[in-house]
Design a protein that fits this description.
Layout lengths: L1 E3 L2 E2 L5 E5 L2 E5 L7 E9 L3 E11 L25 H16 L4 E3 L9 E7 L2 E5 L6 E3 L8 H12 L7 E7 L5 E7 L4 H5 L6 E4 L2 E4 L3 E6 L2 E6 L8 H15 L4 E7 L5 H6 L3 E8 L2 H13 L5 E5 L2 H4 L8 E4 L8 H10 L3 E6 L2 H11 L4 E8 L9 E7 L1
Parallel strand pairs: 4-6, 7-22, 12-13, 17-18, 17-20, 18-19, 20-21
Antiparallel strand pairs: 1-5, 2-3, 3-4, 5-6, 8-9, 8-11, 9-10, 11-12, 13-14, 15-16, 21-23, 22-23
The structure holds S-adenosylmethionine.
The site of S-adenosylmethionine (SAM) has 20 residues, from helix 5, strand 18 and helix 7.
Amino acid sequence: MQVKIDKFDDLGWGLTRIDNKVCFVEKGIPNEVLDIKITSDKKDYSKSVIENIITKSEDRVNPICKYYNNCSGCQFLHLNNRKEQEFKTSKALNYFNTCDNFYKTTDYNYRNKVTLHVKNGVIGLYKENTHDIINIHYCYLVNEKINLVIDILNNNIDNNFNGEVIIRENNNQEILLVINGNYKYLDKLLNNSLINNLIYNNKVLKGNDYFIENILNYKFKVHYNSFFQVNRLGLEKIINILDNTLKDKELNIVLDLYSGTSVLGIIISKYAKKVISIEENKYATSDALINLNLNNINNLEVINSKVEDYIDNFTNIDLILVDPARRGLDSKTISYLNKIKSKYLIYISCEMISLKRDLKELEKVYKKDKVYLVDMFPKTNKVETIMLLRS
Ligand SMILES: C[S@@+](CC[C@H](N)C(=O)[O-])C[C@H]1O[C@@H](n2cnc3c(N)ncnc32)[C@H](O)[C@@H]1O
């Protein structure tokens, strides 16, 4: 069946209509004429794949990766950078009516962490929309050294291994490898100088259960169970945005919510009398306490709690910074953010859909000032949004 793609949908699929019913075309690009095959037909929409390209978009490029057709890791290896940026900025414009800047990072090999799944000795990433595993030997999104470890694991694996592998790398190219499951070749990993830290089923077998990250002039201890931004250059851009936004401000009390290891709280502490970080993960809050010392910070308090269980303790706050997980804010937290009515609110989000939902409520009290995009996840349909608001 032949169709012409009208535009992108929110996930970056091509969108067309067949007999007035919406049809999503995987990897279709606006204005392309394509032969498609319907793969799922529902009452209100259908999904399809490309069988043949009849008129090719000038923005289509050859995917660099041999796993691209099956793997769920990337969505935009078939698009040039210009079109990817246009998709991300148009989405922000569509959701928020403004996009004040787009900060680029590097195209490939930017991730400092990957989680691989293992089933019957097959190690890799999930196939699109399934829990089937596609065996991966190299991933273009992750740092080169992490790829070397992926290769080592592929060469030292047996059919009985089921579980999960997390590989992380810091800026000194030290590797921290976490293996959960019944893995047999531990001696091979212990003897490999590439692997600095090895944690097997929550036991440290080599090195430490953390590493130290250096970002700009800061130092951060990161436990293997603690969150750290996956794209170092992206984090530097966020730090630049925060510094430029706050450099002229003299803030009294600041809240750093969903604070992880207090990376952002520490960065903004120089603009405030006092910062209070709130984070539910006990490993991350322990790291945060150490990070205060590593960075000579003495005006930051760390609280280990769910944000929604603690937020009702505050009034009279100058700035609230929220950086929640993909699902965004819960309704109790939103209503307290509105009740506190801080002078400034900064919302950092890796999921525009939840940000858009939360903004609808927050806009009852706060006004959007600026919307910045940091390309934290190039070649995927995700982008980090930094939204500045004021009451
Ligand atoms: C996107 S990370 C941001 C961390 C930190 N701001 C940073 O940049 O490193 C979100 C953090 O929120 C924490 N988190 C998730 N739900 C939470 C909740 N309900 N209350 C407190 N922390 C939560 C997670 O453990 C994670 O550390």
